[in-house]
Automatic annotation (TrEMBL), chains A, B:
Keyword vocabulary terms for this entry: Kinase, Transferase
Carbohydrate kinase PfkB domain location: 21-279
Name recorded for this polypeptide: Sugar kinase
A Pfam family annotated for this UniProt entry: PfkB
Keyword Kinase: yes
UniProt keyword Cell division, yes or no: no
Source organism of this protein record: Spirosoma rhododendri
Amino acid sequence: MSLLTVGSVAFDALETPFGKTDKIIGGAATYITLSASYFTKDNNLVAVVGDDFPQSMINDLNQHGINTEGLEIRQGEKTFFWSGKYHDDMNTRDTVEVQLNVMEHFDPIIPDAYQDCQYLMLGNTAPAIQQKVIERLTNRPKLIVLDTMNLWIDIANADLMNLLKLVDVLVVNDEEARQLTRQPSLVKAAAKIKEMGPQTVIIKKGEHGALLFQNDQVFFAPALPLAEVFDPTGAGDTFAGGFIGHLAKTDDISFDNMKRAIIYGSAMASFCVEKFGAERIMNLTDEEIKSRVDEFVKLSAFGL
Amino acid sequence: MSLLTVGSVAFDALETPFGKTDKIIGGAATYITLSASYFTKDNNLVAVVGDDFPQSMINDLNQHGINTEGLEIRQGEKTFFWSGKYHDDMNTRDTVEVQLNVMEHFDPIIPDAYQDCQYLMLGNTAPAIQQKVIERLTNRPKLIVLDTMNLWIDIANADLMNLLKLVDVLVVNDEEARQLTRQPSLVKAAAKIKEMGPQTVIIKKGEHGALLFQNDQVFFAPALPLAEVFDPTGAGDTFAGGFIGHLAKTDDISFDNMKRAIIYGSAMASFCVEKFGAERIMNLTDEEIKSRVDEFVKLSAFGL
């Protein structure tokens, strides 16, 4: 089934203990659609960039089967830019510079051809913008998945609370879940989020895996234990892309299929951190993904 | 097969955000043998207490089928005492008071009846004492499992390095693994520990589960997501007790069976934190354990 991803397409400049990059392609929606492209071929993007965004990068997205009809190119403006530096432990990072540029007035335009999308992934951006997307779709998608971040929990809490009533799945990390609910226990945090709207809650714990909560059921997906993490940028978005990509491909939103989807998301995220930015997830084969997923099976399978 | 556990039997006084206790029974070997008692009935303890240690507590151990012939009662001396207070997040604690008492000169005596033990669990105590146990056994056990802690890595590093060459399995938490090897990556830490001696390495990550490394294989066991952790004291020892208890019961040290053993250990640890001290693991039924293990299956099972 068709997938619509809305979020940022950006330039990133990254520094990790292993090196640094000049401006490379980044942004939540970039990682999500690229990751999803290995699962679904009906893969539609809504985002905004400036006229400094190279056609070659758009070509890269198109070559992955991503429909960029909804990628608005704002003339005379510049693309969103983020620059960050990771600490030695790779678990924390400082934002060096943010230039909102075109994102400051992002007003998502949904092409007519996207109106029938069944799966909607709202990549991290202001909740008011995310809500506009839902309102601008004539038919409600079968599944709406929302990502957000600490910034919006802080400065746009009322907007976020309204939005949460409209979505099916919330994907957040453990700190965001705690911040949103003021519950240190993730089990209680997930229960409280379900009261806010989304009936399915995914809590990402980075190197400690991810938890899926739905009704009274809970599933835990491990993260692959890695000897080296080269660059964690985009790992969470890549996870979300694998998750919704698998759901859109199979058009099955049962709990059992969501478990599989989280394993695929985790496998995609484990590739993402192997190289700078989106480089690794731009260059994957189906065989590599299959083999990585098999590693997850080996990692967590036991018989009693 | 027969299991021998050596370590501390102690008094603890605990304070958590949920309440506080007077002196209750504690000590690594107490948690280990109690946990193992649900798996193996040939369960032998070597430890030392003072003459202040109540016979009723020894009776409690005996009622769980624990052989206390090797529990030395030192007349005119006092039992090891530890008092600790947990912070609100339950992940960190302060030691309020330590009275080594009889542990200061612990010289483990192995009763003749214990000499044929096939499974040896060295609970956390000074490496020199742990090594004495191995030397005092006429026949080397089939499997020697070692626990240690940050204190010994700091102040008895040479002793610990010698000891590591003699054991098969090291059980440590993530911080201890990093401290021992100076490797932030747990994958690299496990590889380095294997160079130090033990061919199997278990790294406990508390609420984030546990990793089992052997040769080039790795297995991850999740921790059960809990709404409340009442008191984490002894959870690591209870984990170790379930692990070695299952191995001793089945007499199978294959990687596949170690995976099962870690699931049993994790299930036992999830009970331990539900009440103060060893209270919960003193009062378990086989049915409760089976049902908890089934929760682990549900938590981590997925089909592709």
